[in-house]
Amino acid sequence: MKNKTVSIHIVTYNSAEDIIECLTAVLEQDYPIEQVIVIDNASSDGCAEKVRAFYSLCDSGSDNSRFVLIQNQTNTGFAPAHNQAISVTQTDYVLVLNPDLSIAPDYVSRLVARMEANPQIGSTTGKLLLRADHQIVDSTGLRMNRSRRAFDRGAGEPSDQWRESGPVFGVSGAAAMYSRRMINDISVDGEFFDGDFFAYKEDVDVAWRAQLLGWQGFYDAEAVGYHERGWKVSGRDSKPMFIRRISYINRYKMIYKNEKLRTLFMTLIVSIPYEIAAHGYMLLKEPGLIKAWKSFFYQIPELKRKRKYIQGRAGHAVTDSDSRKL
Predict the structure, then answer these.
(1) Per-residue pLDDT reduced to its tens digit, 197-214
(2) Which architecture, in CATH terms, is 6-234?
């Protein structure tokens, strides 16, 4: 039987320090990789030049379509750049990979096997560990609490506590395998990741939408990756204000689009204590975040349209899910 095809998509932005280690791990996979796509978002640190040099060493010249480097003239953002990569590939599976993450040689083969065994699984992840300490978990998937705050499962915990594979709410975009069938099924206006998100929480948004439309996420404890995880290491204050605004407001855009009407009231009730505390802190420590609401209200027409589409599709999710079992 012919192998299912896999492409690996990496978006870089001033990632010269990490990209070669990441690409080396990609080429060491024990599963055939049809294409390696790097979208460089106008790096100024020589990242694109490093990728081009690496490609030239690896490419025998017999098939120059295997290695693709696309250089954007501006930083379009993580979500739009990954949509760009998805649009130029047709593989059965897509591995979205951060440039500061390296994967074990069997990472791809294990995740493909999981997804082939159950057609309802649309996304998978392995056990992501901190590159600085392989005994500590970075992520084993995503979880979301009742106030619609999302977290990396197991973050900061000993890795030996996460030996059991199983279903998850969703997968971290740091090293996420998605099936093309799910990508095509849940995309809105041809966008898998919401391009209005720019960066941060776009993977949570996809996870929530996928669940609404009847797809499953899965964690494979035997597939391993190692993540640098810049934000967690350097701290929130090291990020520019415009990035913090994006991360802050994307949660509310996500809730607006994905929260079902029948659960909205309970979500609001449960969220009140957190919202009071978080916005009190914001007004005292980060008042500049409040300007993020300008983008929210500006995008209301688009958010309404996307919500209507998602919620309309969600009503048919049970039937669609059952058909995928056949």
Answers:
(1) 998 999 999 999 999 999
(2) Alpha-Beta Complex (3.90)
